[in-house]
Design goal:
The chain is an alpha/beta fold and 446 residues long. The chain has a domain of 244 residues: Amidase signature (AS) domain (Amidase signature (AS) enzymes). The protein has 14 helices and eleven strands. Strand 2, helix 4 and strand 3 form a beta-alpha-beta unit. It is globular.
Length: 446
């Protein structure tokens, strides 16, 4: 194969490698060349060893040429957020406190990636402990703007064609918002689909794994690879998982029904994002039904915050005790705020979280998906010192629902704006089917 190999989707690259039309070594080298040409500005990578990446690629090529079994992502490069443990690469969690840290074991999802035949290119930059303090990563569309957080490097690496796939995590909006800002597809499946064993956790109740890809099918295939039951993770469930790629490729038996909630905080949407979403609603026409949002729905944002503050404070306290002067001001303030939350307040918040899960289970009896903003608008300027507002993601993350963002809109400054779709728990395939339908509908309109 010739041309811009680094721009191939993961699905296409995997097929070309299986067919013998492309080698993993050629693909990885093309990605490394793109990284060398652009990453001085983008700064997506916390760790990259080009020779190690090529060694992996050559081994995948040797396996294929020998006629041995190949994985569904055989020879395809992937980036890992730098909170995911790898024995053969450092995992530093976006902080100098963990500088040079090399775990003794791989995270469960690393084992899944190896079984699928991927080439693990390196570690992508994370905000400090996957929280709010920004990295130095820039947006590939405009280096003066943020790529979002906390999965900053993963989103930027895919958007810059450094890799076709990357793994991130979401506790608030840390997959969906960076995907929106960087113009990639982003998908966070139902809580419990993907194991968190071997990941640095800030919130046992809220932390979830998500993925970035060049196409919707890419995100579906990677999620299928990563999903498994893991008894070591209390959130993991021991039931069959939805087939994400099958859902993406399926045609809906009837046109889907999609809900839109007029939430009280939609006044935080910037004008170009609000106008773009109205266009999407207009194009989809009778398939969208608008609802005034009950106050209880908006209140879930504060429930999420209470749970997150309580849990991150207790997770981070031992680290802060020995390294307080090496933590950001933001992290120190969060720890103090979280330690002030009582056990009773926390238990009450968890009870509301359970009620929210039950509400959404009932809601999806009538609707295939909810549509919502993925972010407040375009990526913010770096000078603002923020990775963006997660409020448009927190309700769905709290409930553990599958969420996907489609790069459908362009803002006033020619930066991407994503459109988020949310589905029923453990019906991720149905959500992906609906997302593919929405993408086709919008493309035909154009």
């Amino acid at each position: 194969m010739r041309g811009d190999l680094h721009k191939l989707s993961a699905v296409d690259a995997a097929q070309a490698i299986r067919d013998g039309r492309l080698t993993s070594e050629a693909l990885v080298q093309a990605c490394l060349d793109q990284i060398a040409a652009t990453d001085k500005t983008i700064k997506a990578w916390a760790y990259l060893d080009p020779e190690l990446a090529l060694v992996q690629a050559r081994e995948m090529d040797r396996i294929r040429k020998a006629g041995r079994a190949t994985g569904v992502l055989h020879g395809v490069p992937v980036g890992l957020k730098d909170i995911i443990d790898t024995r053969f690469m450092p995992t530093e969690c976006g902080t100098p406190i963990f500088s040079g840290r090399k775990p003794d074991t791989d995270a469960t999802i690393v084992n899944r990636l190896r079984e699928a035949g991927t080439v693990i290119m390196g570690k992508t930059k994370s905000t400090e402990f996957a929280y709010l303090h920004p990295t130095d990563t820039t947006n590939p569309h405009n280096a003066n703007h943020t790529p979002g957080g906390s999965s900053s490097g993963s989103a930027a690496a895919v958007a810059a064609h450094h890799v076709p796939l990357a793994v991130g995590t979401q506790t608030g909006g840390s997959v969906i918002r960076p995907a929106s800002f960087c113009g990639t597809f982003g998908f966070k499946p139902t809580r419990g689909v993907i194991s968190r064993t071997g990941l640095f956790r800030t919130s046992q109740s809220l932390d979830q794994v998500g993925v970035f890809g060049k196409t919707l099918a890419d995100t579906a295939l990677l999620t299928d690879v990563l999903g498994c039951f893991d008894p070591a993770d209390p959130a993991s469930f021991g039931r069959p998982r939805p087939a994400m790629l099958d859902g993406t490729n399926a045609k809906p038996p009837v046109e889907p029904d999609i809900a839109w909630f007029d939430l009280s905080f939609h006044d935080r949407l910037r004008p170009d994002a609000a106008e773009g979403l109205e266009v999407v609603i207009e194009v989809l026409g009778p398939r969208i039904e608008r609802f005034p949002a009950a106050p209880q729905l908006t209140e879930l944002v504060q429930v999420h915050k209470m749970i997150y503050d309580y849990e991150i404070a207790r997770q981070m306290s031992p680290i802060a005790a020995a390294n307080d002067d090496r933590l950001s001001t933001c992290m120190r303030q969060t720890i103090a705020r979280g330690l002030a939350i009582s056990d009773g307040q926390y238990e009450d918040a968890l009870g509301v979280k359970t009620s929210a899960n039950e509400f959404f289970t009932s809601h999806f009896n009538d609707f295939d998906a909810i549509m919502a903003p993925a972010a407040s608008g375009e990526a913010l300027p770096l000078a603002e010192g923020s990775t963006g507002d997660a409020i448009y993601c927190t309700i769905w993350t709290l409930a553990g629902l599958p969420c996907v963002t489609l790069p459908l809109l362009i803002g006033a400054n020619d930066l991407p704006i994503g459109v988020q779709l949310i589905g029923a728990a453990e019906e991720d395939d149905r959500l992906m089917r609906t997302a593919a339908w929405v993408q086709r509908a919008m493309t035909q309109e154009e």
